[in-house]
Design brief:
The chain has 182 residues and is an alpha+beta fold. Helix content is 19%, strand content 44%. The chain contains 3 helices and 10 strands. Helix 2 crosses helix 3. It comes from Nicoliella lavandulae. Pfam families: NUDIX.
């Protein structure tokens, strides 16, 4: 059985600075119709940043959607500031803006959809190592206030185990680090 849904109608609902929302009417595999709310988001990037003393850099920031501070890995969206809309260029820029480091080694680990049930946001996850402080700091995004801290693998796993990390990309990065460490 073919599971593909065919879009019959697309009705734009909202155009914002980082997302667009549309309501789709689709034809299901059995011929019936259903509606889908879809959030379109720019491609995104995130990095598992490991310092020269084998610690992970994470940042705490306020997230309005959950009305809470969250502990996360550096991340951001690919946009016009990045050459050819390159994920790698976006990651280099985000590392400068958020944690003020340049990674001499940047390796693509994997890519994934962040919330596949309603959004098309796709994120590339990188491993950033061989760090050095940037000489020319880029400005942070407006309203972006961060606390930066380093954690050992055991500390990061404990934060995850105790529910202090609720962000999926950060949880994935910690588990990836654990796999890479074996």
């Amino acid at each position: 059985m073919n599971l593909e849904e065919k879009v019959i109608k697309s009705d734009p609902k909202y155009h914002g600075s980082i997302i667009d929302v549309e309501k789709q009417t689709v034809e299901l595999p059995n011929g019936q119709q259903a509606s889908r709310d879809i959030v379109h988001h720019a491609k995104a990037v995130a990095a598992l940043v490991i310092t020269n003393n084998n610690k992970m850099i994470m940042e705490t920031q306020w997230r309005a959607a959950v009305q809470s501070e969250t502990l996360e890995i550096p991340a951001g969206k690919v946009d016009a500031r990045d050459k050819n809309n390159s994920s790698e260029d976006a990651m280099i820029r985000e590392l400068n803006e958020e944690i003020r480091y340049h990674a001499n080694t940047l390796k693509h680990l994997t890519g994934f959809y962040t919330s596949i049930g309603f959004s098309d946001e796709y994120m590339d996850l990188y491993l950033a190592t061989d760090l050095e402080p940037v000489s020319d700091e880029l400005p942070r995004d407006k309203g972006e206030y961060l606390r930066i801290k380093e954690y050992s693998l055991s500390e990061a796993k404990a934060l995850l185990d105790h529910g202090e990390i609720k962000d999926a990309k950060t949880a994935m990065a910690i588990l990836y680090w654990e796999l890479l460490s074996k």
